[in-house]
Design goal:
single chain, alpha+beta, 434 Repressor (Amino-terminal Domain), 2 domains, five-stranded antiparallel sheet, elongated
């Protein structure tokens, strides 16, 4: 059973306020996850009384206790760091640039995945769908749809694939089944906002929902008869059509904030005609098809 460390009288206001800040943040996360004090205490291996003291600021948490609570609440690494900081500890998880030397092996793996996806498109994005990297297949798809390279936002800012997908000035006019695709995508962003509870993800969701013509989160996608096994995105430009479905991969054991938040979205042809189109495009530029 963990020892309860009460904040003694005479401690500085900074220490007292730090403990209170941690308690407020812990209570907020517990409420957001819909977990009772008793259940959280049991999962974290402590007592309800100790947890109550932590939330009220009457006790200061140890680093080990913060780790247990963060794991029990299933907090992303970024939010775990914030919990440690609120308690007055240094954050345990680093946030590296993708170009950092310590990420060389991971970068090699990401590049390998992009290459293996050829001639079909693959994108690497961050938590909020900002484009970080793409393969040649992705470049050919974007060029076919928009005439632009995938990294060209026109204003020096990274392309946001979420905005590009849902905006009437983006890919929306080129997606035949845009309404269905939009509903599924918005619910995915909503799930992200619930999971990480950051203002940035909430702002992205609000921005997407404020776009004209965007469906409400409560909208229901009609069933097809017979229902297809996956929802494909049906692109059409002129007389040309492409039908693609996607998979999203993440690193399985990240110990870095940046690595936990990146995603690799890979597109696959949903029919033979789409597959032939991508192989033909690759053959024209002399790349392996």
């Amino acid at each position: 059973m963990p020892t309860i460390r009460l904040v003694p009288r005479g401690k500085s206001d900074h220490v007292t306020e730090t403990v209170k800040s941690f308690g407020v943040r812990l209570r907020w996360w517990r409420d957001r996850r819909g977990v009772s004090q008793l259940d959280l205490a049991g999962t974290a291996g402590t007592t309800q009384r100790h947890l109550s003291f932590l939330e009220s600021g009457r006790a200061a948490p140890s680093r080990e206790m913060i780790r247990r609570l963060a794991a029990a609440l299933d907090l992303p690494l970024r939010q775990q760091n914030e919990l440690f900081l609120a308690a007055g500890y240094a954050p345990p998880w680093r946030e590296s640039s993708l170009t950092a030397p310590e990420l060389t092996r991971v970068n090699s793996a990401l590049d390998y995945m992009l290459t293996q996806q050829e001639p079909y498109p693959a994108f690497i994005v961050d938590r909020r769908w900002r484009l970080l990297r793409a393969n040649a297949g992705a470049g050919r798809l974007v060029e076919f749809l928009t005439g632009l390279a995938p990294a060209d936002a026109g204003d020096g800012e990274p392309v946001n694939l979420a905005v590009a997908l849902l905006s009437p000035d983006g890919l929306r006019p080129l997606i035949v089944n845009w309404q269905e695709v939009a509903v599924y995508f918005l619910r995915g962003v909503q799930a992200d906002a619930i999971a990480d509870a950051t203002a940035e993800t909430a702002d992205l969701l609000a921005r997407l929902l404020s776009l004209p013509g965007v469906p409400a989160l409560s909208d229901i996608v009609p069933f097809e008869e017979p229902a297809s096994p996956v929802l494909s995105i049906h692109f059409r430009r002129g007389d040309s059509s492409l039908r693609l479905f996607t998979t999203i991969a993440t690193l399985g054991t990240p110990q870095d904030v940046t690595l936990q938040e990146i995603r690799i979205e890979s597109f696959f042809p949903a029919d033979d005609a789409t597959a032939r189109t991508f192989h033909d495009w690759a053959a024209v530029v002399g790349q392996p098809a």
